[in-house]
């Protein structure tokens, strides 16, 4: 949580931080990923058989190495909109017998050469040597053209331990031990007019209740995620009121982008912060009105699709391959600040997507490209763990138009030029994340709570907010330096800075 005081232009900005003021735990699942059968995310992204950069299973080794840098804790699969017409049994068994199908979400052809077993095998490789244990799978069920029988069969195939048909089918396919898939989503964006089998909130709620009941009878240990909208809608209210007693998390999706306007682009993620707070209130209200027992763990928000994405700039049916700018990287840093500030409510968040499709990581035939947005994601996933710290900011503000337009009306004092979050980890290291969203002005800032400390400094910036990274050139990366903690610190224009010190 960050509190804020607006100051006049001639006043000195201040960030005040106290390592003793821990507020809420930052869930490690905040830095999750998402792989969908869309564009080049799976085929040509994580799975590229025949490429010399791939291993014997066809998995791109350079992608695996990069994702290990991020220490991704959980990955959502297989979608996304793709789920609504995906039948998981098409993607198991001998590859030569797997059918190709028309794919209706992104208007392609799904060859089914990569399915459940390949996904779990890829996660196993990705998990090797991970100090925090395995990378958790998170599977989204088909609540479009799929049936409850099909969903139950998928859970049994993944988690079954008894002498039953689908558990035995998994064994017959060469996987004797259960996969122990914990996280299961009850559909994806079924409220959207683009969905095959779009539903009303009332129809979805009735169906989700019945599915949840049956799935828990089969496996009482699974975590079920309800399909919300963006957290601010009557859809969210209706499905939560009906289903909050039988689910564990509530999914919301938000994407931000604002064309060529840098300031609208970097302030847009503040709409997601408002969405989290509204969704958390709707969850709390539903739990109260439905009489959910206090012994039932809190119903957290699963923000399982988020990112900067302009569908006009990168259409989904054309592969959604964005070329991200420094401005987009700063927007991603603001997004991540939002998740840290609102950590009390976040049980999981998944950047969409992990490779190639609106992604910080791109592949070519000869290697990978770490886009501008990679660098703030790397710093947060590496360092922003532990607890959110109470932080106070005194700064000037932007008071102009926003995207979405309603956001401007919720920012009573405007958007701070300095977007800030802070954490302290188990080892006592304080991490202060500061985005100077101003395109043209540096700010000298008094940082209280760091005096006399040896501070590691990580800065992401470039001469212009339009700077990009491509296979031919890298204009945006991390510059490392040190600071002695004395005097004011200058946060450069259009930059993301992380300060890290031992408390």
Structure description:
The protein has 503 residues and is of the alpha/beta class. Strands 1, 2, 15, 18, 19, 20, 21, 22, 23 and 24 form a ten-stranded mixed β-sheet that branches. Strands 3-4-7-8-9-10-11-12 form an eight-stranded parallel β-sheet. Helix 6 packs parallel to helix 8. The longest helix is centred in the middle third of the chain and has 20 residues. It starts with a strand and ends with a strand. The mean pLDDT is 97.
Write a compact overview of the structure shown.
It is built from eleven helices and 24 strands. It is α/β, with parallel strands linked by helices and 503 residues long.
| Low confidence ranges | none
Structural class: alpha/beta
Q: Give the strand tally.
A: 24
> In what range is the share of β-strand residues?
25-35%
Q: CA-to-CA gap between the ends? A: 19 Å
**Relative helix content:** 25-40%
Largest sheet: 10 strands, mixed
Tally of individual helices:
11
Cα-based radius of gyration, to the nearest Å: 23 Å
Instruction: Categorize the overall geometry.
Output: globular
Set down the secondary structure blueprint.
Blueprint (H helix, E strand, L loop, with lengths): L1 E5 L6 E14 L6 E2 L26 H10 L3 E4 L23 E3 L4 E3 L5 H12 L8 E5 L7 H12 L5 H8 L10 E3 L15 H18 L4 E5 L6 H10 L5 E8 L5 H6 L2 H20 L10 E9 L17 H16 L4 E6 L9 E4 L2 E4 L3 H10 L2 E10 L1 E2 L7 H5 L4 E2 L1 E7 L4 E8 L6 E6 L6 E7 L15 E7 L5 E3 L3 E8 L1
Parallel strand pairs: 1-15, 2-20, 3-4, 4-7, 7-8, 8-9, 9-10, 10-11, 11-12
Antiparallel strand pairs: 2-15, 5-6, 13-14, 15-18, 16-17, 18-19, 19-24, 20-23, 21-22, 21-24
Helix pairs in contact: 3-4, 3-5, 5-6, 6-8, 9-10
